[in-house]
Amino acid sequence: MATAGKGQIFELRFDQFDVNQDGRIDRSDFEQEANRLIRAFGSDPESPRALVLKQSYIGVYEYIVSKADVKSGALSREEFVAASKAAITDRGGVGFAEVMAPYVYACANLCDVDGDGMISQDEFSTWLTVIGAPADAVGEAYQAIDTDKDGKVSIDEFVSAVRSHVLG
Ligand SMILES: [Ca+2]
Ligand SMILES: [Ca+2]
User: Fold this and answer.
1) Which ligand is nearest to the CA of 152?
2) Which of 53, 138, 141, 165 is 20 to 30 A from 2 via CA?
3) What is the C-alpha to C-alpha distance for residues 40 and 102, in angstroms, rounded to an integer?
4) Which are the contacts of 73, defined by CB distance < 8 A and separation ≥ 6?
5) Which residue has the higher pLDDT, 131 or 153?
6) pLDDT tens digits, residue range 41-100?
7) How far is the centre of ligand 2, averaged over its atoms, from the C-alpha of 120 (Å)?
8) List of domains in the chain
9) Distance 129 CA to ligand 2 centre (A)
C-alpha cells in the first residue's frame, strides 16, 4: 500500500463510502460497507466476527461524528475529512489506537476466514476490493506488509500496515 499524505486518505475514503455519490455520507454508508465485506467473505451475518465488524464500523462513524460540527447526522466531504483528521491523524498513534484499531482488528478477523491468524493474499485482495482501494499491485503490497518475510501476512502485520498507511 502506498503511503497517502495526511488527509488525502480520508478524501479517498469518502469516495469509497459515498457509493451513491450524493456528496454526503452517514451511518448507513458505514453499515453498508460492513455488510459488503461480510458478504464478500461469505460470513454468517449473525456470526460473532460479523457482528463485531458491524459494531466497529458504527464505532468509527460515531467517533468521527463526535468530532464534526454537524446537525443532520450526514457528513459532507469537508466535514468528514476535517473530523477524521481531528479524531485520528492529528492525534497520531493515540488516535489510531482509540478510533481505528478495533475496526482494523475486526477487519483482520473477518479476512482470516480459517482462523489461523494469517491473512492470505486472496483474502487481502478481497478486502482491498470491497473497501474500494486500488488492487492492481496486490502481490507487491502483500509482500511489502509481510515484514518478517515468512510469506504470510499475520493479523499484527495487517494492523501495522494499515496503521502506517493511515498515519503516513
Ligand atoms: Ca487464515
Ligand atoms: Ca509475515
Assistant:
1) 2
2) 53
3) 20
4) 26, 27, 65
5) 153
6) 999 999 999 999 999 999 999 999 999 988 777 999 999 999 999 999 999 999 999 999
7) 10
8) 8-167 (1.10.238.10)
9) 21
